[in-house]
Amino acid sequence: MRVLLQRVTSGSVFVDHKIVGSIDYGLVLFVGIGQGDTEAEANRLADKIVHLRIFRDEDGKFNRSLLDVDGGVLVISQFTLYADASKGRRPNFTQAARPEQASPLCNYFTKRLGILGIGTVETGIFGASMEVTLCNQGPVTIWLDSDEIG
């Protein structure tokens, strides 16, 4: 699994010009599911994300987690995180999981965030053409790959 996270002051996702999910302060998570990913990877990434100290404390240092600041999460499924553009001019997505595997695992990951204590967890619509707006604070943008975290 791969997650591109952005610390935000707000984030929204639209489908057919209608808001289907939005948060205030917290994280927008672009989530890619790869072939062979399981609930174990989803658990590891969810735990990492909710405890990652990327929010400022009163001294301006990154010492607070999403749980500490009572932030929300907006989860956007994005198979393009598995794009391979190493050859030619059109990326291929052969490493991305098929929708029948990716959709339930993305749902599991989203539910796991709530189980770990995130009060506001919003999502886009899996497989839909979405428009995402966000206000990145910092800016803080971090790449996480389940193959690279313990």
Strand and helix layout:
Elements: E1 2-15, E2 18-23, E3 26-32, H1 39-51, E4 55-56, E5 62-64, H2 66-69, E6 72-77, H3 99-115, E7 121-123, E8 131-145
Parallel strand pairs: 3-6, 6-7
Antiparallel strand pairs: 1-2, 1-3, 1-8, 4-5
Helix pairs in contact: 1-3
What does this structure look like?
By secondary structure, this protein is α/β, with parallel strands linked by helices. It has a single domain (2-148), classed as D-tyrosyl-trna(Tyr) Deacylase, Chain: A, CATH 3.50.80. 23% of the residues lie in helices and 37% in strands. It is built from three helices and eight strands; from the N terminus they run E-E-E-H-E-E-H-E-H-E-E. The protein has helices at 39-51, 66-69, 99-115, and strands at residues 2-15, 18-23, 26-32, 55-56, 62-64, 72-77, 121-123, 131-145. The strands form two sheets. Strands 1, 2, 3, 6, 7 and 8 form a six-stranded mixed β-sheet that branches. It has a two-stranded antiparallel ribbon with strand order 4-5. Helix 1 (39-51) runs parallel beside helix 3.
